[in-house]
Amino acid sequence: MSGEMGDTTPIDFVVENGGRQLRVIDSTESRQLTFTTERRERFSVRTVGYDWFAPVDHVAALGVSSLRLPGTWDILLRDPDGELLADVPAGTDAASTGHVVAEITTTSIKLYVAGSGGVRVSTVDGRSRIQSVDGSPLVVGARSLHERPARMLTIPPTVEGLMQGVSEFGAALKTTSPERTFPTFRGYPPELQFGAEPEIPQGRQRPETGVCLGLPRKLEAVLAAAPLAYFLGAEVTPADETRLELAGHGTVSLAPFGATDAESLHALLVHAFVLECAVRTEGLYPVELAARERLEATDIELNYAELYDEPLADRLAAYLTVPTEPVAAVAPEWRLTADIPETIDSGRLLPHLADELANIRPYPDGQQPATEATFESEGALTDELNDAMETFLRDTGPSRPAQNGETVGERRPSRSCQTADRDDSFRVRPAKSILQVYAGGGIPIGANKVTAESYRRQLTDTPENPATIRAIVICNDPGMTAETDVRDIYASVPMLRVTGELHTDTTVGELRQLFREDVDLLHYVGHVSERGIECSDGHLDVDDVEHVSTRLFILNGCRSFGQAEQLIETGALGGVGTLRNVDNETATKMGKTIARLLQNGWSLGSAVSLLQLDTAAGLDYVVLGDGTAEIASADSDSPFHYVVGTTFDGEYRLSVNTYPTQTDTVGAMLRPAFGQDDTHYLAGGEIVQLTVDESELREIFERQNSPVQLRREQSGPGFSIRWSQDLAEDMSPLTDPL
Question: What is the pLDDT of residues 155-194, one digit of tens each?
């Protein structure tokens, strides 16, 4: 496949520091990777044509024979046709002669490095190094992982119209092989709009998969079916009951998969997806996959090698003979659950939710998918969260300023701010997924609030200057100066060019102008009231700002949800707001922790999700708009979260958890740079538990700065998040008494 650079390539190569440094920039995803070379060499970029086995956006000869990566990554050595020559785990060495292409895995920008005389991989000072064996210049190919819908379909505003639109989602699949379980092999489904007459640009393009999904003429069923229909490349047709029709295999009812249409459709998606992940190990990536190993340890009998070459309908028929329980037991924690209203207009959300293979749970229009204030897991922390939730939902009356004879502490937190009525706050029903989104009216507690417009904005968002990340911290509260440290946190993002600006005592006019400017992240510290965001000379109501160009924001002030929601409606990509009064100390800790998570590659949604599990105060914070938005990428591209406890014999039990990113979605695979074997894991939730000694634990903590919780502190009050590199320097908190 030709890799010659086009006129609209999202990838750029920038030589810096007198030729000693190369920055690869993805302008559409605001992602950067920085490379160095040997002291004696200097980068020079020359765009060239090159035939790769995989698609790339930009190819260049680098003028150097050695490339040092920003961290340590798994690297696959392939021949020019893509045949695997060697699997090189992070931190190990290998070499292959002849014409070799090194595929760097799990990076935020897809990278290939070619050497005409062979390639050698080694590790120097904790960083992977790629060298040409014969000293000839290396060639690099890069591809953005960004996807956009290729078409806009016009469909009638009816249930049957939605069936027509969803039937075309499979056209975005780049293959019908098991490799489509990888995120990069799934394109973005076409967008939907409504009109009197259907209009399908370029005609029907759905692949012939031999799969037909029959659904009742019910809006709930069609909305819930979109991710499954997309993944299976299925045609959706009206039927008396929810069922599959497979070419050569007849009709199969989905009733055994769940009590409702939504439950059965998602359960089948998970079932088929996990088994396809196991079978894909017979293809381009023949790795040791933990999910397959666990399946093979059960009574399930599948010929993986034969299944890999079978048509999709035949593979699916084989999967339907496999019991659901053992497959569900090895499935990763699902990325996303979406509660959306049963309306025709919700059809505009379907391409975006199908792209994430979300668990879609429609709810009756005019109602809210609320639940009682309880959490499903057990333990003291859960009890604390349940108590906090009960208090939160019961406390619906507006607070008032302190009266004569009262101290501020008796009536309200130290942040003085007017409060709004909270009658439309509700706890979204729990879900067994890492993230939750909600579309509809009211203020959802425990979910990110989204709209079709916020998803579309995510697709078209392109910063003016992708080479530099502009982060602004605004502190309009003299009592909150401790939180201004976040400026230094943002400015210390590894290997990125970040400007950390601090503004204090900002006026209404100055804040309005900052919202209009091309700012990647605006972190506000101060008061928010029903009059707006407090400034040195008054209050700025975002309703008075005609257009917002700020991409991401954090409004760390009391009850900032309303202003945050207006920022999203006026143009911001995503942000964080609060639902009620937050005291100074808590707000400072929350603000600093969110900043540090963002700095280490976490998305807005994942950061707040972790904090909601860590402390009851996390329930006061909610994400609006694009919860997948990030300002940096993690060293491993999949952020880790560790939970560690001690064993009876003085060792440590380490739980390794992963959180999703924009590129590490459902089906992404990773191999931690620690452990005893070469096993790969499907990203999502807890991937493995390890027993390690102190030196091994310190080595793990040093590799990548990640949030850590001590198991004995999880059930305690307040914040329990620590940081791995801090613990690597001082391990005493692991054994200190509470």
Answer: 999 999 999 999 999 999 989 999 999 998 898 999 999 9
Which position has the token pair 């709004």? Answer: 420
Residue 228 has pLDDT above 60, yes or no: yes
Contact 27, 12 (CB under 8 A): yes
The candidate with the shortest Cα–Cα distance to 103, out of 91, 117, 125, 85, is 85
What number of CA atoms fall less than 13 Å from residue 281's CA on the CB side? 18
DSSP three-state, residue 272: helix
The 3-state secondary structure of 649-700 reads CCCEEEEEEECCCCCCCCCCEECCCCCCCCCEEECCEEEEEEEECHHHHHHH
Place of tokens 């530099």: 468
CA-to-CA dists, residue 96 to 99, 107, 132, angstroms: 9, 22, 10
Give the 3-state DSSP-derived string for 297-351, with helices as H, strands as E and coil as C: CCCCCCCHHHHHCCCHHHHHHHHCCCCHHHHHHHCCCEEEEEEEECCHHHHHHHH
Architecture category of domain 380-395+412-625 in CATH: 3-Layer(aba) Sandwich (3.40)
Region for residue 681 given its phi and psi (left: phi exceeds 0; alpha: psi -120 to 50; beta: otherwise): beta
| 238 has a pLDDT exceeding 60 | yes
Asked if residues 436 and 339 have their Cβ atoms less than 8 Å apart, the reply is yes
Residue range 223-238: average pLDDT? 98
Q: Exposed, middle or buried: residue 135 (CB in 10 Å: 0-12, 13-18, 19+)?
A: exposed
| Integer Cα distance of 582 and 580 in angstroms | 6
Q: What does pTM read for this prediction?
A: 0.85
Domain ranges of the chain: 11-143, 152-363, 380-395+412-625, 640-734
CB atoms within 10 A of CB 47: 14
